[in-house]
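ARCHIVE CARD
CATEGORY: sequence design from structure
SOURCE FIELD: tokenized fold
FIELD CONTENT:
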């Protein structure tokens, strides 16, 4: 299996929608109720086209056959993960999320936002998220950011802890169905 990382393009939006839904429904069921997940898929989770337009959203593609596809025609390249970083104030949320704030951050004083990470359940725990995170941190660092911040899902918190992020505060994201989605604001300084 070979995983390549590249910037997302507008043509990736339909497969990204499928990938995000599969990731949420396949990996987050231990931390959230079905009602929370479905509500989040309509509001908090989804494609953020601003990240794609800004050139700060990455996709991970499987480019070679792997055991999962033994005996099958491998649909290469196959999107197996996605995630990005932002130079804008929005901490989390897709295009549909009402709490967006698209004003630009100051790299000298603000933290870049690590955003919208999703990995296909069949490709979880294989380093896909780590490769995307490395690409995001490197790109944000090249843009002058010395700190990173995110709104992590409960499912993602252990992964981000291993990558050097620390919890800052608990946040409740409102969902369109009257429920909320607990997330954890986390941060990391460059060099930590």
């Amino acid at each position: 299996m070979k995983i390549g990382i590249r910037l997302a393009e507008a043509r990736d939006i339909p497969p990204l929608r499928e990938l995000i839904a599969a990731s949420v429904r396949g990996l987050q069921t231990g931390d959230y109720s079905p009602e929370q997940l479905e509500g989040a898929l309509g509001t908090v989770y989804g494609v953020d086209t601003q990240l794609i337009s800004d050139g700060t959203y990455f996709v991970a593609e499987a480019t070679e056959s792997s055991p999962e596809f033994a005996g099958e025609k491998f649909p290469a390249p196959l999107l197996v993960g996605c995630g990005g970083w932002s130079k804008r104030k929005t901490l989390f949320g897709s295009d549909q999320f009402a709490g967006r704030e698209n004003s630009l951050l100051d790299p000298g004083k603000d933290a870049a936002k690590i955003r919208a990470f999703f990995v296909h359940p069949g490709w979880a725990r294989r380093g896909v998220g780590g490769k995307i995170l490395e690409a995001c941190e490197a790109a944000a660092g090249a843009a002058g950011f010395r700190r990173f911040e995110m709104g992590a899902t409960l499912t993602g918190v252990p992964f981000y802890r291993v990558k050097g992020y620390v919890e800052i505060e608990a946040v409740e994201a409102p969902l369109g169905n009257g429920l909320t989605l607990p997330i954890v604001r986390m941060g990391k300084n460059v060099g930590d």
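CARD ANNOTATION: The helical segments are 13-27, 34-41, 49-54, 128-142, 157-162. The beta strands are 3-7, 57-62, 78-86, 112-119, 147-153, 166-174, 180-189.
SHELF: design records, drawer C
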